[in-house]
Amino acid sequence: MAVLTASFSPPGATNGSTIATTDTGDANAWDAVVINGGGSAAFKYDNSHTRFGKSVAGKMVSNSAASVVEWTTQYGSISSDWGRIYLYLTAYPNNTTLFVSAGNPRIAIGTTGGVFTFNSASLLKSSTTTLSLNQWYRLEWNFVFNASTGVVECKIFTSPDSTTVAETLSSTGLNTSTSANILLGCNSAQSWNAVWLQCAVAKATAYPGPFPVNQTACTVSGLQPVGSTLTANAGTWNNTFTLTYQWQRDGSNIGGATSSTYVTQAADVGHAIGVIETAAGQQATNETAAQASSNTVTVTSGLATGGMLLSGVG
Predict the structure, then answer these.
(1) Could you tell me if 233 and 277 are in contact, meaning their C-beta atoms sit under 8 angstroms apart?
(2) Are the CB atoms for 271 and 242 separated by under 8 Å?
(3) What is the C-alpha to C-alpha distance for residues 197 and 9, in angstroms, rounded to an integer?
(4) Which of the four pLDDT bands, split at 50, 70 and 90, describes residue 307?
(5) Which end of the chain is more exposed for a tag (fewer CB within 10 A), N or C?
């Protein structure tokens, strides 16, 4: 099944504009955006709180009515789902409010920042972990859809880029038979102002893990003359990801140069050679993050019979 992802920051999104199903650029556009209640109710792009180098996030403001984004036909009828959302709270809802809903399996946020899991209308688990205001968190879930052996599980990450789980809420042997769509946002008649969302995942085949974040840029090492082999020395990331490379000449891609090494050629003489390192999301989530090397090598003429080792030339 195809994994669904949305950054809440598609190309062309502008601060203050309303999220719409016609937005392009995210891996999967929303099938529906529901904004009810009038007044201050909204689901907009906003640049007040963002992560991962994104220009905007999705800001949800609910005015005693649902304010959600949905994947419907793309989600479909499935047997299990693993997903993820990053969220930033500046206020708590005025009542326990559904936040992730896939029919019967549901995750809610409480009036003091607690996390709750539900099976239909029945409370399953409540967290001892409190989501404090004014910081980012990551929630990941696993829903198994079955009338008698269903599962609702939610993992809470208080350090959003970490793989260390602060708390896991897990219930099994449930009636979780509905899986026609998935909704993210204030899916109940409560007031909640405001929540920022980024980097949603649904329909993964395992827990998605964190969005790739570069911590130390890769470097280029090798000799200057034509015919030398340059090596991309991997940078560090916030987790273990599959890394790929694209070599560049003066900032433009070199065709076919996509391995971790590159042999310089005559066309490189007098030009700066660097590399772009890209990390791919852990569970084939269509998510990538790219980082340019922190240095470049300027190629000189002559065969690679000598030269100076460069590992940190600006």
Answers:
(1) no
(2) no
(3) 10
(4) very low
(5) C
- Predicted confidence at residue 233, as pLDDT, reads 97
Give the integer Cα–Cα distance in Å for 105 and 277: 38
Sign of CA dihedral 7, 193, 109, 97: negative
Token readout for 148 is: 């008698």
For the chain, report the end-to-end CA distance as a whole number of angstroms.
44
8-state DSSP, 225: B
Integer Cα distance of 185 and 169 in angstroms: 20
Domains of the chain with CATH codes: 4-204 (2.60.120.200), 214-298 (2.60.40.2700)
Q: In angstroms, rounded to a whole number, what is the distance separating the alpha carbons of residues 112 and 89?
A: 11
pLDDT band at 260 (very low <50, low <70, confident <90, very high): very high
Q: How far apart are CA 224 and CA 233, in angstroms?
A: 16
Ramachandran angles phi, psi of 44, nearest 5°? -125, 165
Q: Which two tokens stand for residue 202?
A: 């649904």
- Amino acid identity for residue 16 in this structure: G
Q: Which of 214, 191, 130, 160 is nearest to 50 (CA)?
A: 160
Tell me the one-letter amino acid at 187.
N
Question: Following CA atoms 188, 194, 198, 203 in sequence, which dihedral angle do they give, to the nearest 10 degrees?
Answer: -10
